[in-house]
Design goal:
Elements (H helix, E strand, L loop, with lengths): L2 E2 L2 H32 L1 H9 L4 H16 L2 E14 L1 E7 L13 H15 L4 E7 L3 E8 L2 H9 L13 H13 L7 E7 L7 H13 L3 E6 L6 E2 L1 E3 L5 E4 L9 E2 L3 H11 L2 E3 L6 H10 L4 E13 L2 H16 L2 H18 L7 H8 L2 H12 L6 H14 L2 H11 L5 H21 L4 H18 L4 H14 L39 H7 L30
Parallel strand pairs: 3-4, 3-6, 6-7, 7-12
Antiparallel strand pairs: 1-2, 2-13, 4-5, 8-11, 9-10
Length: 548
């Protein structure tokens, strides 16, 4: 059965085709009339040329309109096989998570780290829940990470129908999602929270002990600071309106509850990821890297597959045939094909930083990139540019801080490049600072391992990691390191992909294929559960019940 995304467009397709046909025919008649006014010979040429032009243009326009209507038919069974573990992410969306002792807020930081975690754990079976006074399942275990990202983008405290903070329902719902999953793979519950378990600690401890008894790993990701802070109330434009108040009108103070998080982690024999860590998602990723993974198969049937490409392809073929059967049009088409690559290679004016880099003046480039960074602080590529230029200029302090910021980017390619260069920086410092050589080599190993989690088959990073390991064992210390990749060009606030790092120069008798062999080791049936409806009307909290 054929269906259309926009049925009104398919109804108008014949009218569009007829209108274009009529316009093309009128244009041909005008051309013939003007040719006849010039001479009889030109009139004869005009009459014989382009007879099929109007029908071809009309047919192409009609086919384009059909494609625009979004035709769909047929079905396909899609089978996805993954080798992963079962992991549920639980996000605390209580109002205390709006406190801004983390940037941009506790909730904002938790959502950013959760997005990165979903991105890094591609292939694992992931689920998502949100909790405040009660818990809500947003997504059961699935390999579709894009769906989780959409849910994360929409989370805020107004989603919860019951305010306050209760950890016990979130732990219980994590058990429900994970307990029915195949036990051949490890099961993990990752909970982002500030730990304000309002008068519900005993129930949370009971659920935590049940987690431990079922063999489910608990990772608590702490958010917020230890010092009490107010909870802002902002309007839709982000303007501060007031501060969250209790029933007596006193501004509420909230802080991270270390004792609550510690008690729950102890009861579940779990792990706490500290709020002070700059890369919480990376820490969680490192923790789950050692867990047991298993092959899982997920199948689904896609009905009404998009077929817009078929009429669009036919329209393109009709236009191409019409173009290349006309002598003048064919010459123009060939000319465009020859000049298009040259036009595509035309570049925008180079920035002062890029000009300095092109000249080899890396110190001036680092200074210029740092100046640009002040106006593009939200652009991760600007941080990467500055760090790479500072690395080339021999400024380790600036390189370390800016590359560390770039390594938290949501762009996996940019994160890989930043981690790669952080490893290079640590290698250079290990050579220059022999007193702290071991610490620098450990930093280099950590950076390259994180980079390989993003690109497990990258030969350059593998080669450099094996170089670090050999230096830590006292061999291969004379090998050369690769030069840093040049920073990518950028314009305004937009970012482009960085250039790939050059291949490392050989040394120490270790080839890339040998390093690949040494480091090769680096590197489910869906639970049928009903999704609770989110976005319910928030119930007013009874007197004396905390709503944050």
């Amino acid at each position: 059965m054929i269906t259309f995304d926009a049925p009104i467009v398919i109804i108008l397709a014949p009218l569009v085709a007829g209108a274009v046909w009529a316009a093309a025919a009128w244009a041909r008649r005008v051309r013939v009339r003007r040719a006849a006014a010039w001479s009889d010979s030109t009139a004869r040429i005009a009459r014989t040329a382009g007879k099929l032009g109007a029908p071809a243009l009309g047919l192409a326009a009609g086919l384009a309109a059909v494609a625009l209507s979004g035709p769909r038919w047929g079905e396909e069974r899609i089978v996805t096989e993954t080798r992963g573990l079962n992991l549920v992410i639980a996000i605390d969306i209580s109002r205390s998570m709006l406190a801004e002792d983390a940037k941009p807020s506790r909730l904002g930081r938790a959502l950013r780290e959760a997005r990165r975690l979903v991105q890094d754990l591609d292939g694992d079976r992931l689920g998502l829940s949100a909790f405040a006074g009660t818990s809500y399942i947003l997504s059961p275990l699935s390999v579709d990470g894009s769906a989780l990202t959409l849910y994360l983008d929409a989370l805020d405290p107004d989603v919860a129908s019951e305010g306050g903070t209760s950890l016990a329902p979130a732990l219980a719902q994590g058990i429900d999602l994970l307990h029915a999953s195949p036990e051949i793979a490890d099961r993990v519950l990752v909970m982002f929270t500030d730990g304000e378990a309002h008068d519900s600690l005993e129930q949370a401890l009971q659920e935590a002990r049940r987690l431990s008894g079922l063999g489910i790993h608990l990772i608590l990701v702490a958010e917020g600071g230890r010092q009490p802070t107010k909870i802002p109330v902002r309007d839709d434009r982000g303007t501060l309106v007031s501060w969250q108040q209790d029933a007596s009108g006193t501004p509420i103070l909230t802080s991270r509850r270390e004792e609550v998080l510690g008690a729950i982690a102890d009861a579940a024999q779990g792990t706490i990821v500290a709020a002070e860590l700059p890369d919480q998602a990376g820490a969680v990723r490192d923790l789950v890297a050692s867990y047991k993974r298993a092959m899982a198969t997920e199948s689904r049937t896609q009905r009404g597959r998009p077929r817009a490409w078929i009429p669009l392809l036919l329209a393109g073929l009709v236009l191409a045939a019409q173009t290349f059967t006309r002598r003048t049009a064919a010459l123009i088409g060939i000319l465009l094909c020859l000049t298009a690559p040259a036009a595509a290679q035309s570049q925008r004016p180079r920035s002062p930083a890029e000009k300095a880099w092109d000249k080899g003046d890396v110190r001036a480039a680092a200074t210029a990139y740092l100046t640009e960074l002040k106006t593009h602080e939200d652009d991760d590529t600007a941080w990467y540019n500055t760090g790479t230029a500072a690395l080339a200029a021999g400024d380790p302090a600036l390189a370390r801080s800016t590359l560390a910021h770039a390594s938290t980017s949501l762009d996996p390619e940019l994160r890989f490049r930043a981690l790669y260069n952080m490893g290079l920086l640590a290698l250079l410092q290990a050579k220059a600072d022999t007193a702290s050589r071991e610490a620098h080599l450990a930093d280099a190993a950590r950076a390259y391992r994180e980079a390989l989690l993003l690109k497990p088959h990258d030969g350059h990073a593998k080669w450099n990691l094996e170089l670090v390991n050999r230096q830590r064992r006292g061999s291969g210390g004379q090998a050369n390191k690769p030069n840093p990749p040049p920073p990518p060009p950028q314009s305004g606030g937009g970012s482009q992909q960085p250039q790939p790092p050059p291949p490392p120069s050989g040394g120490g008798g270790m080839s890339q294929s040998q390093a690949d062999q040494v480091l090769r080791s680096i590197g489910q049936e869906e639970l049928r559960t009903r999704r609770d409806r989110t976005g319910r009307t928030r119930r007013a909290a009874p007197a004396g019940v905390k709503d944050w």
